[in-house]
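Known limitations

Structure tokens in this collection are predictions and should be treated as such. Users comparing against experimental data should check residue numbering before alignment. To illustrate the layout, the record for Sel1 repeat family protein is reproduced below. The input appears on top and the generated tokens appear beneath it.
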Amino acid sequence: MARECWSRYFISGLSFILALGVAGCASTSESGDLAGIEPVAPGRGVDDYVLVDCLLPGQIRQLGTRMTYMAPRRMVKSTKSDCGIRGGEFVLFDRSDYGSALQTLLPKAQGGDAVAQTYVGEIYENGLGLSAPDYANAASWYRKAAAQNHSPAQTYLGSLYERGLGVPKDKAKALDLYRQASGLTEDRLIFESELEAQRKAFQNELAVRNRVAASLRQQLRSASASKPKPQASTKPVARTTASRVELKRQVTSQQRDAKSEAALIQKELHAIEQLKQNEVGQKAPSSSGKAAQLGKLELTRREQYRSLLDTSRQLSQVE
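Generated tokens:
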């Protein structure tokens, strides 16, 4: 899928890329302790703590000696600065301020950006910063993104069809959307290649999330330890206070982002279960192969779901 350790590297240069591999291992340790993850280098700006959904160019991949193919563009979670360095395009959904999020995302969504369209749909579906959910509007935006083969939108839209929210209740349509989002294919090697790429991307995403969280914790502690000297100017104090408020806002945004990712994976797991039940009733020769693919996908998603909940928990402890 386009969740797309996923994505959803932030110190530039080769040294960071090498360091990230180490951080990825640390982030998936049994302890899950942020203290073991190297923070952002001192002196960096607030943008180094802002996570975005970065759409990277596609890559050419080879499957043994059989074939080469162009992989779809990959969605990864990175910082704003690193996304630009890697030649990607990014969409920022600041979840600490739902009130202004819709206004910020709408221009990109109206311009055809599938990620922004999906986020706008999420805002309407969950009534984020609104007086109430608007399922019809959510379905409309999900449909635009799903038409661009954006798998999260396909999953969300399928869920609306399954429940009959904002659209007529249609189990067959929901299953079709779930199938598209799952990435099931008749070619087992292509499916497993894509699934392995997703695993690696998610490991990198988790490393980025945890490194940024560790840095936020370090910066907040430093801000708390800073005490004004007697008769000193109030300007440094004001700057420290403003910086602390901004850092705490980033913590809130990233915690909510991790929870949202986990909620999407929950829906993906439900979709996988529905597809598995449907495959049981199929007698086609390909059914057993697809059932095996669904089993591998389910294991991967469950691992990712647990990791995201753990990351959210760690962010909740950042003070």
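For this record: The longest helix spans residues 234-280. The chain is about 60% helix and 5% strand. Please report discrepancies through the issue tracker.
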